[in-house]
Amino acid sequence: MLWQDIFTDAAHNLLRKKLRTFLTTAGVAIGIFTVFLTLALAVGIKNFLTYQMRTYGNTKVLQVHLKGGFSPERMLHSRMGGLGQTPKPLKDESTRFEMKMLDEEKLQQIRSLEGVKSVGPMVFAILNSIRLYQSEERFDVVQLPFIAGESLELVAGREFSSAAAAEVILSYSYVPAFGYRTPEELLGKEVVVSVARVPPAQFFLARMLKEKLKNFRVKIVGFVGEGLLSTAAYFPENFAIEMGRFSFGIDNLFTPQNYGFIARVVVNDEKHVLQVQSRIEELGFRASSVLEQLEAINKLFLTIEGVLSLFGVIAIVVACLGIINTLIMSIHERRREIGVMKAVGATQGEITLLYAVEAATIGLCGSISGIAIGMAVGGIGNVVAAHLYPGYWRAHMLFWLGDFTVLAALMLFGCIVGLLAGIYPARKAAKLDPIRALKYE
Amino acid sequence: MFLSSENLTRSFCMGEQTIVAVDHINLEVEAGEYIAFMGPSGAGKSTLLYLLGGLDRPSQGKICVAGKEITKLSERELARYRNQNVAFIFQDFNLQDHLNVLENIVLPLKFREVAKREREKIAMSLIERLGLSQRLRHKPSELSGGERQRVAVARALCGSPQLLLADEPTGNLDSKTGAEIVSLLSDLNKNGITILVVTHNHSVAQTAQKIYTIQDGKIVHCQLLSAASGGKA
Ligand SMILES: Nc1ncnc2c1ncn2[C@@H]1O[C@H](COP(=O)(O)OP(=O)(O)O)[C@@H](O)[C@H]1O
Ligand SMILES: [Mg+2]
Q1: CATH for B33-46+74-229 (3.40.50.300, 3.30.457.10, 3.30.1490.20, 3.40.50.150)
Q2: What is the pTM of this model?
Q3: Which protein residues have a CB closer than 5 Å to ligand 2 (ion)?
């Protein structure tokens, strides 16, 4: 039999029982649709989180602090109530917020590690509030470390004019918060940033007791895209140092004598971050990196994807049963036809192929429509999400709508699934005894 | 010898009992012969025909056709044999209901990997000869019994077989259309096709050169008819 004949015959056979073919195809479509949509959502959310994690910090940067001292993770854990983990026995005597300061001597060890580009203090200050100059309405704000040379994704304005300039780059969300419509209207306007002094500093350093807050007046020069970091403010490095010194009540903070309690280690290549991280930990420090957290997220999402695709797999298995059922039924109805084909010289192989192609066609049509429906639903979902959270965290990309290879792979997958489901009925048809088929009907 | 069988036996196991449908039949057919098989229902005539046509395999014995021992062929080779050397005509026509007349006729060529255009060209002269030109796009259900059997004959001839096996070809036809088919068969035989026909009808059998009577799977009687006899009159 010519391939051309096999395909046209398979198509004609499918069209003979339109409703049945449609329903079987719909079964496959639902299966592929489920797989596609769960994949789209899982990948979409993972992409989103990855993107967000990357905005949280540079992936080449490690945060390093001394064991037993102030630990950002531990603080986070305690504030969140343990994050569901069993309380760990504490190995050392340190108090939770004791500040173990890093100095040049300690950092020298890290500096000499292979793959480390630079080591410096993690400059940060505790901000109390932000408000427009000459306005009384105050807003929540957090200062994030700004790394010169590692440019932010600005959606408006420019970068800082110098490391010491009294300037700020704000998150886009301050535009509506301050009552404006476009970021451009705010460029050049001044804001007052109020820096808080941390409680231990207030307590231990009596001379600074009186001064709990200090205001800094800075000019808005740019905006970064809106994300999870919606209350972020970035300052030029030297300016941030000044704010940090006030926050912690230490005059020589962020100098080689006192790097504070967190060091910022920049690694040459993103590929070596985790390796450098474990080296640093071998030296007796604690280190954390965005990349490490990204890995955790990836691992988590691999699990989620696995579980979600289980539903898809179940749907596809059901669809397979549908295909098998349909083919067995139609083979039963076409017994005589198959007998005639054999009588005029069809081989078992040709009959197998004919039915297998029918099954594969159902699989292919099912997966194409499943993908199409999935893309439509995902697309609508993205539009709705973008509408619900206008301009917010890439909401229009909530569902990942795939790329060519994934779509092609999914179609191929549907085709193969159909083919596999078709093998048993097709063999059954091929093995049919022509005598019985022709005689006893 | 064009066709011969040796100790040809076919038995069916039906639970406890075994039915021997064809029982040690030795048959010899020369090329171009026209033989009729008669006998009571259940005698094993159809089974014998299916065995000779390669649609079924014997339990025992062998069949040689055109120098080939077809009982030794693989499944694929046997399918090829059915496609190229033999053609069947059945009592109840066995046309494909979903195909039109033309598509039914060219079916054997489809399994010979002949392209659509080409096979329809091959079929055209047959169609005219059998008076089916006006019926090409009709489905079998729209045809009369005689027309359907003519389509079946056309399908059988389309692959230009050497051997034509007809199992009660007039069984479902009235006597007039039956006679048409019978004269068609003897015409074909005159053109050199070897024909084996199973029939209950004596006047049909009379058109053949020999009549074998089969009973309980055995050939019990052989009647030679004069070559000039029968159907033509
Ligand atoms: N596929 C089969 N399975 C079981 N028994 C069969 C089968 N084909 C034929 N038979 C039996 O073999 C015998 C001969 O059948 P058949 O060749 O059809 O007879 P005829 O064509 O002479 O009427 C019958 O008894 C029939 O029941
Ligand atoms: Mg019979």
Answers
A1: 3.40.50.300
A2: 0.76
A3: B 46
